[in-house]
Design brief:
alpha+beta; two-stranded antiparallel ribbon; about 30% helix; about 35% strand
Length: about 300
């Protein structure tokens, strides 16, 4: 990933930041950006100027698609509906900026949280039911670095995240993951002092990894935990493997970070299979994000 970053200075005061990232796969067309400004800096054209810079750099890099995620707290009044038919966000300050800049809303992402306190009995019951349905599979777990025996299979599953997850009208360049890329990914976590637990389902007869889930926390083990990637390989779906790896991971997490109060996760609002699992586990929506896209001329 190639990254650009700027700070915004207004009347001698730092009032924001701008970021832009470009995947480096061959033939990549996309760029991902964000503009974060203090409320005191709104209304002075800073956002428009920053977005013009983003567009200029993207064109210089040969990119034709820009995409961004933004929080949209629930509010009364006019709403902007997602073209997927799942969810809407208020036409707030951020939404008006995106629309005025030529972006279109493509997807709604639900942000959900699970309170870990008292969750163990329910998770144990769900895990037992998932194990009964997942005949022929077993759970394997590891913390970084990934054991050598799983590196190639795990790298391949990571490569499927941008192609197999619901993406509405968004565009993602297909990623190529190998052992070297996986080790770079892991090094970023380890160097930052973050603890990541991978829970995977392995097909017993073939040894194939069929599903995985990631839980991660930073140096502060009493902070919130984040559930990152979760994937069930298409050829292994229908065996409750999503529920299996999520519950096994959450139960193990009680020992990893017993002071962490909750787990936060993100899912496309149209991803009903994964949302159904999360809801059954006990995750509840706490906010929503809009995912926006602009195709450059």
């Amino acid at each position: 990933m190639k990254r650009y970053a700027w700070i915004v200075v207004f009347h001698g005061e730092v009032v924001g930041r701008v970021g832009l990232e470009f995947p480096q796969e061959e033939g990549a067309r996309t760029g991902f950006w964000h503009i974060d400004l203090r409320r005191s800096a709104w209304g002075h054209g800073i956002g428009r100027t920053a977005f013009a810079l983003i567009e200029s750099v993207a064109r210089d890099e040969g990119r034709t698609v820009l995409q961004s995620w933004a929080e949209h707290p629930a509010a009364e009044g006019p709403q902007v509906a997602a073209p997927t038919g799942f969810g809407a966000i208020p036409e707030d300050h951020a939404a008006r900026f995106f629309l005025a800049s030529g972006n279109t809303l493509e997807q709604i992402v639900r942000v959900s949280a699970l309170d870990l306190e008292g969750s163990r009995p329910h998770l144990e019951n769900l895990l037992a039911a998932a194990e009964a349905a997942a005949t022929g599979y077993r759970v394997v777990q590891w913390t970084l670095p990934t054991p050598d025996e799983f590196v190639d299979a795990f790298a391949w599953m990571k490569s499927r995240m941008v192609t197999d997850a619901p993406s509405a009208g968004l565009e993602f360049d297909e990623e190529v993951w190998d052992a070297a890329r996986l080790r770079r990914y892991e090094r970023d976590y380890l160097d930052a002092g973050r603890h990541l637990l991978v829970t995977a389902a392995q097909h017993v007869d073939t040894g194939e990894l069929a599903a995985f889930n990631e839980l991660v926390i930073g140096k502060d083990r009493a902070a919130a935990t984040h559930q990152e990637d979760t994937l069930v390989v298409a050829s292994h779906r229908g065996h409750r493997l999503g529920m299996l790896v999520k519950c096994a991971g959450l139960l193990a997490w009680h020992e990893v970070a017993p002071s962490s109060p909750r787990v936060i996760t993100y899912n496309a609002e149209e991803n009903r299979p994964m949302l159904s699992i999360n809801e059954e586990i006990g995750f509840r929506a706490i906010s929503y994000e809009g995912v926006w896209k602009k195709v450059l001329d």
